[in-house]
TrEMBL record:
Span list, region Disordered: 1-24
Keywords attached to this entry: DNA-binding, Transcription, Transcription regulation
Gene3D superfamilies hit by this protein: Homeodomain-like
Sequence ranges assigned to domain HTH araC/xylS-type in this UniProt record: 207-305
Superkingdom of this protein's organism: Bacteria
Positions of transmembrane segments: none
Record carries keyword Phosphoprotein: no
Keyword Heme part of the UniProt annotation: no
Name of the protein in question: AraC family transcriptional regulator
Amino acid sequence: MAGGFPQGGDGGGRTADGGDGGGIRTFPFPVERSVCGVGMQIAPMGPDRAWRADTPLDRVHRIDFHIVMLLDGGPLRHMIDFTEYEATAGDVLWIRPGQVHRFSRDVEYRGTVLAMQPGFLPRATVEATGLYRYDLSPLTRPGPARLAALRAASDQLRREYEDTETLPLSLHTAVLRHALTAFLLRLAHLAAGSGDVARPAEDSAFTLFRDAVEQDFATNHSVTAYADALGYSRRTLARVVRAATGETPKAFIDKRVVLEAKRLLAHTDLPVGRVGAAVGFPDAANFSKFFQQHTGTAPAAFRAEHR
């Protein structure tokens, strides 16, 4: 389709269910196409660019990096984790690693696209810019003044990205990190509703918990196990998770498990029992009970509704 991203990768792509081809394809950050091999890219979107030759953009997929699209055209519809977002010129779409999404069919995406690899920015910057605030809407609509500031920050970042002559690589990368941080702080401020993006010092504890859940939710649903692994008491963990999300640690874990189950039910042909096994329920009956308890719908009915 028209208006994608610079083609990258080796024609492959991982699947989300263990690699047998039955899951959702996940595409890695195409580092080999970055200027000087740095962990970010910024470029215009347009009809001369494609994401992958072998995977249509309007089919669901994941990426293991961040994508920020600052749009110059529209309207368009972009699906991210079961929600269709309607966006137009001046809007910003932020797709975070692991989110399942698809592009509009036969719609040209015009504007600027930023891709960034996890690990390119230091931990303190990640927390300050809310890189993994999955609770925030992917769609932001800045007002005229803030949009102008975002565009200026984006233009500056692109100039620094493309300037490979005036600085050695180490300094070029350092300058890019500073320019990227400035852009993301502006964007995160908007995405958080003009409130403070960074949370109190306890946010570091929540970040560790969130990262642990993201890594282990398919095999570990125990609050006690996470608390022990992180060196916190259950009470401390409950306090920091509630401060960050308004939820209990158990509700946070279950919500992540349910989201993954929904993704696999809606976007793959894996049998219900294998979906359950992929999110930590070897027994299909227990998975069906858990899923219905949290969604009000049986797994098979949810799948039928989204096909």
